[in-house]
């Protein structure tokens, strides 16, 4: 029998130009509702999702606007991690990102996975 976990890590590589980003945050919020501890690790163009103001440009009907999905996720205790080299490659610094976003390497994600977290990738 598979062990159960209350953790979920979502790896995201798609940015504001992709409907997948809205789908991922919708599912992340659903996972919080289901009682999971959810962490999202952003790489590549997904970094733009948490650049201040960047998320305001995306809405995939009938889903909620991406900005609202991200805000809800954070208010409900979801963690958002941003890949340091990906942040740097875009010329961003901590001050350019939404409050609460943590710039941290993949080791945080790997620690959750090692501790039994389920994973999704978008």
What layout of secondary structure does this protein have?
Layout (H helix, E strand, L loop, with lengths): L6 E6 L6 H15 L3 E6 L23 H10 L3 E4 L1 H6 L12 E2 L2 H9 L3 E4 L1
Parallel strand pairs: 1-2, 1-5, 2-3, 3-4
Helix pairs in contact: 1-2
Protein name: DsrE family protein
Pfam family, one: DsrE
InterPro entries: DsrEFH-like, Sulphur_relay_DsrE/F-like
Please tell me about this protein's structure.
This is DsrE family protein. With 122 residues, the protein is of the alpha/beta class. It has one domain (7-121): DsrEFH-like (Hypothetical Protein Ychn, Chain: A). Helix content is 33%, strand content 18%. The protein has four helices and five strands, in the order E-H-E-H-E-H-E-H-E. The chain has a five-stranded parallel β-sheet with strand order 4-3-2-1-5, with helices on both faces. Strand 2, helix 2 (66-75) and strand 3 form a beta-alpha-beta unit. Helix 1 runs parallel beside helix 2 (66-75). The termini are far apart.
User: How many DSSP helices?
Assistant: 4
What characteristic shape results from the CA principal axes? globular
Physical arrangement of strands within the biggest beta sheet:
4-3-2-1-5
Give the domain tally: 1
How many β-strands, per DSSP? 5
Give me the strand/helix succession.
Answer: EHEHEHEHE
Amino- and carboxy-terminal Cα gap: 27 Å
Helical amount: 25-40%
Name of the CATH first level: Alpha Beta
What is the CATH superfamily label?
DsrEFH-like
Structural class: alpha/beta
Residue stretches low in confidence (pLDDT < 50, at least 5 long) are none
Q: What is the CATH topology assignment?
A: Hypothetical Protein Ychn, Chain: A
Largest sheet: 5 strands, parallel
Protein name: DsrE family protein
Pfam families: DsrE (PF02635)
């Amino acid at each position: 029998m598979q062990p159960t976990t209350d953790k979920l890590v979502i790896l995201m590589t798609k940015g504001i130009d992709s409907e997948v980003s809205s789908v991922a945050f919708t599912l992340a919020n659903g996972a919080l509702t289901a009682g999971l501890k959810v962490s999202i690790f952003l790489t590549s163009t997904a970094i733009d999702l948490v650049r201040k103001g960047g998320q305001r440009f995306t809405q995939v009907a009938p889903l909620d606007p991406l900005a609202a999905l991200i805000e809800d996720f954070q208010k409900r205790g979801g963690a958002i991690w941003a890949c340091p080299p990906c942040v740097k490659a875009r010329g961003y610094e901590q001050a350019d990102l939404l409050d609460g976003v943590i710039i941290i390497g993949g080791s945080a994600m790997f620690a959750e996975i090692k501790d039994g977290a389920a994973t999704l990738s978008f």
